[in-house]
Amino acid sequence: MGLLQEALENIKPLDAGAMKAAAERQDQLTKPAGSLGVLEEISIKLAGITGSVMNEVDMKTIVVMAGDHGVTDEGVSAFPKEVTPQMVMNFVHGGAAINVLARHAGARVVVVDIGVDAQIDNPHVLSMKVKNGTDNFAKGPAMTRDEAIRALEVGIEIAYKEIDSGVKLLATGDMGIGNTTPSSAILLALTGRPVDGLVGRGTGIGNGDLDHKRKVITDAIDMLHPDKNDPIDVLAKVGGLEIAGLAGLIIGAASRRVPVIIDGFISSAAALMAGRISPQSIDYMIASHVSVEPGHRLILEELGLNPMLHMDMRLGEGTGAALAMTLVEAATKIIKEMATFAEAGVSDRELKID
């Protein structure tokens, strides 16, 4: 049995009993019922994921998958693909936004070369390269089915490695010039949504380039005919290696009953892919924020996930997920550290919601 299939078979429903116990404890805490809103919802969801009412997320990791895209040859990005390895080294040196926000959240950043079109020899970059970037999907499939599965399994392997080291909370991050194009193509191919309301400007392309980007995507889908009922076929034909790796990370986390925070548009395309491969995996996802990239909101709607933050962000890297980590940790502390009415000697009849 392959690693992917094994992981999929291990993904189970949330623990309803633990969620009920967590909800009951929330109602016993010294506050009006429901008054902490999403913080309460997160603590209940975590109970369902882990099977325990009390949870700690003191060990947190943001996995940044990096890969290049052959479709950048079509002029769909404002930046050249040479920026991808340059940014990978910026992550290593701690100078990127994700490094700053990860330090703020007390999280470790793991940088993975799953498909950068350059040789990166650095001990602080995890080399798991499937190939040197995807092929140009305007000319043919982005990768073979075997390569797509291998990239998914890279993500599963990394999830397992992190969890085995004691990590209790994972988050997704990405780096890959041009990767809003395959993310948009995945959304269009899997949902049949209209292209005009789906494809955004990515790194900041102009109106003419945006029209061209939309045409590249629609023409590729018309040519390749990705099968929406076979998500791995969609991934292979119009996807990206870092997107596949992040989808695998989500599947791996779900198979080990560990929550995973989803970042922005690219990460959410990976989440949509994971959700189509294993609908049960959606229960293990926590949406961090909603990006200004138009497709992001649509993906969250498809997944039925509500973002915690509305910050007008569109950087990726895992930045929104890093911010959300602090809120998830806060939720675990509320249910664990806050006094109950009985403990505090407070009558619950005296507290009412305004």
Automatic annotation (TrEMBL):
Keywords: Cobalamin biosynthesis, Glycosyltransferase, Transferase. Pathway: Nucleoside biosynthesis; alpha-ribazole biosynthesis; alpha-ribazole from 5,6-dimethylbenzimidazole: step 1/2. The gene is cobT. It comes from the Bacteria. It comes from Candidatus Aquicultor secundus. One of its GO terms (molecular function) is nicotinate-nucleotide-dimethylbenzimidazole phosphoribosyltransferase activity. The active site is at 317 (proton acceptor). One of its GO terms (biological process) is cobalamin biosynthetic process. This is Nicotinate-nucleotide--dimethylbenzimidazole phosphoribosyltransferase.
